[in-house]
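The material for today's practical consists of a large collection of protein records. Read left to right, the backbone structure tokens trace the chain's path through space. An example says more than a description, so a record of this kind follows:
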Amino acid sequence: MDFASQFLATVRQGGPVLLTGPESPDGDSIGACLALQKILAELAPGVRIDVAGHPGFRYDWLPGARAMVPDEQVGAYDGVVVMDGDAGRLPRPIEAAFKQAGWTAIVDHHRSTTAGGYTLAYLDGESESTCVMVRHLMRAWGVGLDRNLAMLLYTGIIFDTGAFRHSNTRPSTHLLAAELLGFDFPHWVVCEKVLVERRLPGLKLHARVFDQAEFLAGGRLAVGRYSLALRKELGTGDGDVEGAVDALCMVQGVEVGAVFVEKADGRTKLSLRSRGGIDVASLAKRISVHGGGHAKAAGASIPGDLAAAMAIAMPSLLAACSAPGVAGSAPAA
């Protein structure tokens, strides 16, 4: 694996390196970043390796998570490595560090991601998760597993496969999971915290988002919104909205679920999910140059507040879900 040797040689040059995911990083991004940080600490001793981001209540218990550098405190780094995303969806403070870095790298499994704009790239659109790709790097480097690494990698795998429910799960996924479970960490706790557990404000947020959701295009499109005003009213954070778009997509008759999340930096994040009849990665790219992901799970960063972002995105969403031949999962109620 050429990337493995080139990447490690570059890291060993000695300058500080930042590992980061996209804005509002999920379980696969955080798991991959923290696992790679731990691996590089062993392989490149003396090199400062930081992980950027806010882990939130869902991930702050993971090994190494509480040492993550908040986005707004990120400074200059010789190298910036984007894990499970692309540079177009970085938080603004990280975007600045990326542009100023002497070298950059990407490790990602989204089919919409390209190698352009990075010094080094490891892309695998067939991989279940970025954490699976990190396991491949470990093998190339001759690094063994331990309990903490197994827990971190398992976090990313269950997040991106929906605890092995999604169609990207394959026999090799279960074989890797079995290898990781051999390190005797409480896998049921990982599943509960990453996929199920909610804070009370988050529960109230989901109730509000669902109550105010719109079902359009003959019930094939479900749209939710999370405004800054609602965030302030309920005292919620980014992690509290996680899972809302998946629930909307699973409403009977719905083909695409969409949730707009208004951000304090003047942008709006759009999360998309599909039952499979519509490629939401392509749809996200049509909506925004900072869009992409998987055919069934994608997202985009759109400039502007909630109203402006919806004005930009809704025509494309409605057109895609109203096109001839698009049918919902079942007749809408």
